[in-house]
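INSTRUCTION: Work out how this chain folds

Fields: amino acid sequence; protein backbone structure tokens

Chain under study, with its fold:
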Amino acid sequence: MALRHIRKRDDLVLRRKAEPVRRFTPQLLQLLDDMAETMIEADGAGLAAPQVGISKRVIVYRDENDVFELINPVIVSSRGTAVDIEGCLSFPGLYGEVPRAEHVQATGLNREGKEIRLDVKGFLARVLQHEIDHLEGILFVDRATRLLTPAELEKLRQS
């Protein structure tokens, strides 16, 4: 495994719609492993392949205990709305209030090419939507209703 360089803000790959994965190769498995290591090292909740300069439909994300991988993910349904604060490894130090669906159902493939069906809510639903947005060239700042000032961010950290 190896750490990958996380692309920042104005990098054009972040605005490009990612291509579907068509072949499951050793390079894809290496990418998944590297992305997981990079996400953990950066203390992120998720990471999309475009964030490491690879325009493929691949994401990794995690909860407190596990790391998950999803290839060619698609949200098939969503319901409810919640606004919460989000950040992004490609926008260090920047946070905003972002409305997202509270509950999503999604499909995708695992590293063996087998279909996965997900039914997630709350934090994991938010992370999944954020990362799938990356695959469409959509960034959290595009969806944010308001960006937080440094003073507001500090106040939130203290409370």
Remarks:
- The CA atoms of residues 24 and 113 lie 7 Å apart.
